[in-house]
Amino acid sequence: MIEGRYLDEIMRKLYSELSKSTDTFEASKGKGQDLLGQKILLKDPRARISATATRGRLISALAEFCWYMAGSADLDFIRFYLPDYPPEGAKGSLEEAYGPRLIGTGEFGRSFDQINRVIDRLRRKSDTRRAVISILEPSDLEPGKEEAPCTIALQFIRRRERLHLVAMMRSNDAYLGFPHDVFCFTMIQELVARSLGIQVGEYHHFATSLHLYERDQDKVSAYLDEGFQSPTFAMPKMPSGCQLANLQAFLDIEQSIRSGKTTAAAQIKLPEYWRDLALVLLRLADSRFRRGQKTLEDNFSNINNNFYRNFFIKRPKKLPKAPAPVMIQDKLDLGDDDGVKN
User: Quick check: 229 pLDDT over 70?
Assistant: First the structure.
């Protein structure tokens, strides 16, 4: 098992283990090496994003979360933020997209809102082991299907008034997919915990094949050479109480930002936590629509939490080696003490 209190701690251990693995494979996407039946334990699910210059990709991770929670399978949606989103050459809606499977929009015949169903089940029976979201379906494995979701299921389990999440993966790209999966799934974990009025627990991640492609090995080496930017790097906590209505308002603003209708910070009327996330997305849109550096900076200056500013400050790609004690987060702050019952 690989465990840590924040994502960089885990990724450094993970990439080190992968580099020593003797299990190799050759897939349609290239050659690589993997770890079989690997478990990851992230002790602080809000420490869900890298603090480094090379892997601190806030906008792309947040965009994928929005894509999921909007219930969308539209490739134009996600490619506004990630122009090279696979599969290459595909257009329209992506059948293996997670959004319709999570939210139940009816697209591709998927009509179950699995997130609301999980919340309802946990409210009815707090110690249930049936609070499961199924992502992979039997039809995904039919002959002739070129792609299939990498995630099998997400299981939420409530113990001692904390909500833990277990993600089960059939296949997981350690360089590209894993960091985004951790971000999106722990955001959902925190959202469900807030809806239940309980604290966030731990995040458990199981992967049958947690792999690294040969093409990404140089990038991993660059990441490992960079060093830690900060030993503690947790996102601001989601507000107390059910956030589903605020999430929907945020997703409405995201759509307006992406379509070019929302162009100024003053147009964004959301609670502080969700407004800051919207301003992060507006910064990207200001760049995409070429509104100029002054507009971009004026809009982004309205952001409240300095955590988000850190991602847009130019940082060194390589840091001096730090003593081991400096690189350990010795205080675990889940940030759930105010307004949430113990």
Answer: no
